[in-house]
Amino acid sequence: MNLQTRHNGLKLTISLLLAALFLAGNVEQSCAKGFHSGGVGSCDSCHSMHSPQSASQPLLLSSDPSSTCLNCHAGTGGVNSPAVFSPDGSALTPGGDFYWLTRSFSWLGGESPDYDHGHNIVAFDFNLFSDPVQTFAPGGTFPATKLGCTSCHDPHGKVAGGTASGRFPVSKSGSYGAGINSGAISGNYRLLGDSDYVTGNYAFNKDAPVARQSSVNKYQETDSSHVDYGSGMSEWCGNCHSAILNNEHSTGSSSFEHPAGNGELLELELVNMYNSYVKSGDFSGVTMTAYLQFVPFERGINNVQFLDPNSSAGPDSNSNVMCLTCHRAHASAFPNAGRWDFTASLLVDSHPKIGDIGATASDVNYSYYGRDITSEFGSGQGQFCEKCHGATFP
Question: Which residues, at least 6 apart from 193, have a Cβ–Cβ distance to it below 8 Å?
Fold first, then answer.
């Protein structure tokens, strides 16, 4: 090989590397720009004018809406990752990780099937399919085969009907804590559909909730960096689960029924219990550090500017329980998308656990968001229902 040939080869190699870096940069920018920054998303992040991938979903880059969303929102979780579908359970977002829809666990005398871990969105390109058991949304009529990311989230960020109603297609919202301006027009929290949102042939009739996500570790949830829920979450869930909300929520095997919603204010006894409860048998807590990520609540606030997602304070007499007090919006490691294992009397006996068929050490670690129940709460830790109810929980 002569010098000129080697030189040309080196130039070609450098050119290919630069091209690869450029393309990678474009992909990152394509996924990063648009939907959550205060304006309409870049159209070509999701749509192709000339070569759509699905005839049934016109102009989409992928086979269906959820697959299109997951092109940017699938990947390893982390403080800088917007992933909600990871390969290992590492997406520790407030809503949970759709990864758990791919994991089934079994043990002597029990099982925890994948489809029971959350909302079974349909994303063909990512091998996610509709719920094989539930034909419709529990307590409602939304068809399981149509459930996807855009069943809840408006991909264009419209509020109050958007441009079709002469309004603004903005997406800037309480999703992240920074940049909220009293003079600005804000979009809905997490781009959630509003009371006039129509997905397929299904129409919503409840407004999006008031909530605000921390801008610190904004893709993960901790006791000091989390979503501060204001009001309206349970009512919004009632768009699809109206019978559950209206008839109160039964725990199934127990006769105990749990109210949820703006009108279900925490009684003083429950407020005091939440704020003093640290773990089973330990009631030495104080209000200013009482918040526990596994048991969030609504503060009874209707203005997002007055929410503080970096506050560790517990509830007061204006606070109320909501659907997401006990459940994850997307999916979790536990049945019924629980924030903890509702079937375990002691949380150290939660599944998945080491020895379960189908469970990995990573599954066990991420099931409680990297928090070790034994070392932090003790081997005698009971259900997190105790955070409000103490040892009186049936």
Answer: 152, 153, 154, 199, 204, 208, 239
Question: Is 252 a member of any domain?
Answer: yes
- Is the backbone peptide bond immediately before 143 cis, with ω within 30 degrees of 0? no
Give dist(CA 160, CA 163) in Å, integer.
9
Distance between CA atoms of residues 16 and 14, nearest Å: 5
pLDDT digits (tens, 9 = 90+) for 130-146: 999 999 999 999 999 99
- What the block records as the tokens of 70 is 């997951």
User: CA 172, CA 102: separation in Å to the nearest integer?
Assistant: 32
pLDDT digits (tens, 9 = 90+) for 215-267: 888 889 999 999 999 999 999 999 999 888 776 555 444 455 788 999 999 99
Residue 114 lies in a domain: no
pTM assigned to the model: 0.86
- State mean pLDDT over 65-69: 94
- Total domains in the chain come to 1
Q: Domain of 282?
A: 229-394
| Cα 275 to Cα 291: distance, rounded to the nearest angstrom | 8
Residue 335 lies in a domain: yes
Say if residue 376 is exposed, middle or buried (CB neighbours under 10 Å; 0-12, 13-18, 19+): exposed
280 inside domain: yes
pLDDT in tens, 298-349: 999 998 889 999 999 999 999 999 999 999 999 999 999 999 999 999 999 9
